[in-house]
What does this fold into?
Amino acid sequence: MTFQSEPSVAPVFLAARVKGRLQHALRQAGQPCRFSRKVAVRALGDNCSPAVETYLRKQAVRAELVDERYRATLKEAGFEERGVDLSEPSETNSGRYWFNLHLVTVTADRFRIGKEDFLAKVRSGIFAWAGETGCRLKAFSPMPNHVHIAARGNQERSPLELAEALWKSLNRAAGCCLMGENVYAGTFSEYGVGAVWKQT
It folds into this structure.
């Protein structure tokens, strides 16, 4: 079954609600059915994991910067954890979850991150966010005025909740309102949305 959910809905809540509603509907139809406690939830998106990971990897290289030293500094500040395999699910007692997020946050007034030693603060803020929210950080790529992040989201928390936590963590680390209010959070996995329609 494929659903489109609101950004405020966590994967665990979605799975529980779908299972409960389906069991209720079957009981109402006179065909009661008890499902296993195990569920599997996979977030989809327009982009697949390899495309997102490659995109983050190439950001600093493709950046149109006059100063090559600044480009090198951005590239060095980036991070990729090759030990995190986003194609493998996060396992819980009740199921398996593929909840991958591509997050992008932009600085307020397009302020350049390299000023005032903000680059190091942004880096520490991202690691703090991952630790505080229970997300597994795959990679991040800082740019002059925005940051890209790829992570395995905590399935008990919604994309909206994780995006807001990222915004707070980065501004806390910066010691000011460095990041603007809008944060992009998109889901992705090994399969694009088109894979669903090809099955029918």
